[in-house]
Design a protein that fits this description.
- Chains A, B, C, D: It holds the Pfam family Thg1C.
- Chains A, B, C, D: InterPro entries: Thg1_C_dom (IPR025845), tRNAHis_GuaTrfase_cat (IPR024956), tRNAHis_GuaTrfase_Thg1 (IPR007537), tRNAHis_GuaTrfase_Thg1_sf (IPR038469).
- Chains A, B, C, D: Its cofactor is Mg(2+).
- The structure is a homotetramer of 278-residue chains.
- Chain A has 278 residues and is an alpha+beta fold.
- Among the domains of chain A are: 122 residues, tRNA(His) guanylyltransferase (Thg1) (Alpha-Beta Plaits, 2-Layer Sandwich); 54 residues, no CATH class.
- Chain A contains nine helices and six strands, in the order E-H-H-E-E-H-H-E-H-H-H-H-E-E-H.
- In chain A, helix 2 crosses helix 3, helix 5 crosses helix 6 and helix 5 packs parallel to helix 7.
- The N and C termini of chain A lie far apart (51 Å).
- Chains in contact: A-B, A-C, A-D, B-C, B-D, C-D.
- Chains C and D meet through helix 3, strand 4 and helix 4 of C and helix 3, strand 4 and helix 4 of D.
């Protein structure tokens, strides 16, 4: 065959298999999103539509990899996906996992742009990705706690910063200088005293980021429950999300379950993470 | 800081730096493009518009990484990008290089879809990627020869296959059976005898794939020449593409250079690869 | 400095850090020990002195890496060392860990040769090594179970094989043919019927291999107990080795503890593995 | 089989193949040799016997891997081995290559101790190792230049340091303080003025380190020449070692070749490196 004497170049493809039985986290990050969000007029400090577009792109990834990706968490221009420790997706080849997840996310982001955004997309946005292996449950929970703590820190800063600029009439430099060295309590106070903002009453969407999780739907007629993809804005640092439902409050029968947006328990994500086997 | 006690999870990010001074090739491949091309009615055996869209996405990647990616070659639903051995892009972190290139390509593909295709995009397409390191010039040339030889083999097969189906009225199974075990000369003969197709006269675009290369534009007024991105459909297996211009035919002065589509020498890509330092 | 313009070559040293919080197992294997054991007249099927020399070399490794290597298991010409998941030895650089452990073992083997062996060492023996990461307790226990099960299989075969040859007067080829396809029970029967050997009464040293473990020595006068290195020939597949002492039989006070060779419980290794945090 | 349900633990052994067609350098370093050399009374600044023992251990490695390791360079308690770019030794598995080379070296060092050293070996010495891949000739030459430049710097310092201590009666601290901040010329001057030492007249063994190389022996009766392992103390930074013999001075016929210690050309290593294909 004509190509065969060149085919030796394939021998240079080195294996990059992820260690078996480790949890894999793929985190994607927007490239140049400071400029991108500026050029597309994103609202400050948070653009709800742009964040919903991120969530939609992430849901696309989760649906494509159902049974492999069990949890995702997003904030700002980043999203983290948890691949189950027993997943054999792509034989755990790291470059395949990273690249395909980033590609699916990017593709869905551009594809769904017009459904979420009013302005036209001016140029193709892009993301990069990395993969991290975690050996045990503890590190996985701490990873997601790390990202949500980061959400809190960044969102608190951004909220008071843009209040100073947009409502307080300060320049961006003045706002930075005002906030330099302030601790959390001082930022809360500036918002409340100067702008009447009670930070803790702001939408959980912005304060808690978005958690995507496959949730079992109890169905007495099926041995293996169906699952649905839930979009939550809840605390995932504490135990509530990760602890199974209390015995005393058995889950409602399938036909009695209120939609999650009407169901206070589900809104808080109680126990949904307990199905992840962490 | 609230997040600091979780930040240890970053220590699990292992280095994945590519070996210095190696040439890096990132190859991306369409995921599920058999189904994708069917659902979007791609012409068989080749859809020129869909291939031009691939080229446009690849040019976007090359422009974003100008000075780092020096050459690209595409065929069907795959594209290979050559990163210069001295490039320090992303400090040569493999996961970053793979993921960002795949993301840029995907994004541009979806973004530019409507400029190239008549039908609407029905769902987000995706790609995956891999990275290979090559120590010397020889393997790089052989890598691209391998891909272009593959183009030849696949396109020859596909051309006669679809002639049998679309013009010959055979079922796909019958066409496969007809071609089973045939060598190259027999395929040429089937095309010529039964359908009057002279394979070697078909567009080089389909037979040779697409080569993208930054080409210097001579300019007596500048020490460092400007470059432009060329889109070629030429042989890159032989020496012509890789060998500098003959001394006897000095390059024309800048203002005398015909556009490459009028310039036979440039159409054959003569010497353009000689600037890659291979 | 004269050397500085060459120092860039250090940049080619790529990181090879083991994933944090994984258990590391380094296994070393004799190179060409079939020939080596023949040339040095090792007794068949087991040479107790040669095995004790292996154990001595392994104890040297464990003493050098006390606090890092917590368990070792050896059989025939191989030894496996367990590095604690929290060890930061050599910053977990894999090549350093492998090479230094192999070097220490080799050095001690040659150094101690004359204390254990009657014949002179005729040429330098050598070993190679590999490192494997295990994320959880389960895989670590299964790894050591795998090696001990292997010990059982090999030793059973070798014992009956050499009985056939040395006592039964068969050639090695005849002995192989006799054993071909026999299951475990048949091998036991051949030994018992033809040679009066009750396999289960043979020394545990040969049947169980050697387990090295740091064992705490209770001492009411010290907050942190001293430890001593134990050399055991016990079952490490079942739970006994890994389960803490029963509550009903509290450990004896330090001054009442019999030496382990007089203490049936300690001879069976009961609970010694429970200190490894697996 | 009893062991089979545990055998899955082998799946955790990840590939660590070195990139094809790269030159591999394995460098080994003595562990704790400051203390080791002190306890065994090594002469200062250089112990010729101890260095010869290092060389003997390295020759053992080169003989074991003849056809794979083509060059070695040693100084002080370190040795570097060059594995040919086309070697498929151990299928280029890095951990195997590192560990076996370190083990062979260590074993030979302990084994040959008594032939070279007067004092008894008091405890097992050890080494560690690392492996580096180099894509081209240039980096390989620069790697060995780097090590020999290091030899020069260290030996110059050590020679004047121990002259100050042993002949000049200074304490080690005083000697360090004297040399602090001195450049090369000043060190030469101290040696010459105070101790009458002409550094450039000291044995090349100490100043140049030791280079081991397989050298072809011309033999008109054989198509493929035999080779012998040469032990050289020559400059390998400049071109002489690496450049083929001049045409004007054809190599002597085999039976006329003087032993290398009588042959000035061979003493300078002229052209011996030219057979390495660098």
């Amino acid at each position: 065959m004509a190509g065969s004497r060149y085919a030796y170049v394939r021998d240079f493809e080195l294996a990059d298999v992820a260690l078996p039985r480790t949890f894999l986290v793929v985190r994607i990050d927007g490239k140049g999103f400071h400029k991108f969000s500026h050029q597309h007029g994103f609202s400050k400090p948070n653009d709800a539509n742009a964040l919903e577009l991120m969530n939609e792109a992430a849901r696309h990834v989760m649906r494509e990899f159902k049974g492999h990706i069990t949890l995702a968490f997003g904030e700002s221009d980043e999203y983290s996906f948890l691949i189950d420790r027993d997943s054999g997706l792509y034989n755990r080849r790291q470059s395949k996992l990273i690249s395909h997840i980033v590609s699916l996310f990017t593709s869905a982001y551009v594809f769904a742009w017009r459904r979420y955004m009013d302005v036209s997309l001016q140029y193709p946005p892009s993301f990069d990705g990395r993969l991290v292996m975690y050996p045990t449950h503890k590190e996985v929970r701490d990873y997601f706690a790390w990202r949500q703590a980061d959400t809190h820190i960044n969102n608190l800063y951004n909220t008071v910063f843009w209040a100073l600029v947009l409502q307080g009439g300060k320049s961006e430099r003045e706002a930075h200088d005002t906030l330099k060295g302030t601790v959390s309590a001082e930022k809360h106070e500036i918002m409340f005293q100067q702008f009447g903002i009670n930070y803790d009453k702001l939408p959980a969407f912005f304060r808690k980021g978005t958690t995507l999780v496959w949730s079992p739907i109890p169905d007495p007629h099926r041995a293996k429950p169906r699952t649905e993809l839930r979009t939550l804005h809840v605390d995932i640092i504490g135990d509530t999300f990760w602890t199974p439902h209390s015995e005393k409050q058995p889950p409602a029968a399938a036909d009695e379950v209120a939609p999650y947006y009407d169901n206070p328990k589900r809104l808080c994500g109680e126990g949904l993470g307990s199905h992840l086997g962490l």
